[in-house]
TrEMBL record:
This is Probable D-serine dehydratase. InterPro entries: D_Ser_am_lyase, Ser/Thr_Dehydratase, Ser/Thr_deHydtase_PyrdxlP-BS, TrpB-like_PALP, TrpB-like_PALP_sf. SUPFAM superfamilies: Tryptophan synthase beta subunit-like PLP-dependent enzymes. It catalyses: D-serine = pyruvate + NH4(+). NCBIfam families: D_Ser_am_lyase (TIGR02035), PRK02991.1 (NF002823). GO terms for molecular function: D-serine ammonia-lyase activity. The modification N6-(pyridoxal phosphate)lysine is found at K119. It comes from the Bacteria. The gene is dsdA. The keyword Lyase applies. It comes from Anoxynatronum sibiricum.
Amino acid sequence: MILGKTREQWLEALPLLKPLTEATPLWWLNPNRIPTAKALPDLPLQMADMMAASRRLDRFAPYLAQVFPELKVSEGIIESPLRAIPRMQQGGETFFMASLPGQLWLKLDSHLPVSGSIKARGGIYEVLAHAETLALHGGLLHPDDDYRVLDTPPARAFFSQYRIEVGSTGNLGLSIGLMGARMGFQVTVHMSQDAREWKKDLLRERGVTVREYASDYSLAVASGRRESALNHASYFVDDENSQSLFLGYAVAALRLKEQFQEAGIAVNADHPLMVYLPCGVGGGPGGVAFGLKMVFGDHVHCFFAEPTHSPAVLLGLLTGAHDAVCVQDFGLDNCTAADGLAVGCPSGLVCTMMKPLLAGAYTVTDEMLFQLLAMLDETEDLQLEPSALAGMPGPFQLMGLPETTQWLAEQKLQEKMHQATHLVWATGGSMVPASEMAGYLAKAAEPSPAT
């Protein structure tokens, strides 16, 4: 039984569950989405929360510029480039046999400074928020201080009294570990079996304790939460429920608005913005999508992309059970080469926030991730990790599948797509070792089982 129903009863009630549980690629278009203004009053987070997060990052900017040389040029602002990818657009049209009107762009969170993935937004922000709280309460910092006071031996000695713990499939652990260790915290990252060895090695090199688990993400999180609860000086970064992580990701929308203005990209009723976000437990894409809806309202349409074997958030939203259900309940194994997306149970916070806001979600096979990884390398000379390619099928499938073209017509968007901006969110890859990337490209060149 699954929440009081047999699997057969679930399949009868929700026909889309059958292909989902068979790991067949599919699209789900959210029937619960409502206008942004109508959804806002019932959401636990608001624009004011996102603006407060942005101001906190501004306060820490001088400190970040001082402790990370790569942030000196940006004066301590952690942000990623925005890049048009016309050659990939042409290659994708051929590959998917679908015309893509509008322009295809890539948001390169894969190249965010410090930890090289979208997790640099939420993870680093949560460490900074926790450090600020401790320092203010401990008298180490005062509201009007220059935050560079935290880059001193007394400050690092102060933080060394405290622990930070997190469960991760890899990239969140990197961002928490690298930032926490640099400030002086004792950091432990509980890593699932999906995490890549090079990520574990890098953390250990920076003085972070790595605990490995011969299981998936959920066990790593549960173990980390338990261990942290035993120590009053320990702080657990809860990827499933953290509002701080969520808001750190959301600030991306404010920065993106500025980048669009600089690039001359309009987002309005006649120029829709379609955004495609790789999704694991949901915090990163959920935070970004929330921020985008706060900034662009009903002119932005966000889609989550998940592996066919790990469609956790899609399952939570489709069933309405949110975090009370996991992919293993329906016979999926949660095994995917997209290590950052190998999550069986979704975030309840994200499902709550996205239920009225998300346009839809789709699933993608590992085979396609590697094919698109190789195509992006060939067409744009850009190298991403497999999970970061999950967003790439979205624009072409949106324009080429019967169910999605019908949705566009219902939303009165089809006639506006020639003026649309399609933004694929690249979530990680710049820190992947050259040997590891060579392995990805070699795998992409292997014949598929069908040939």
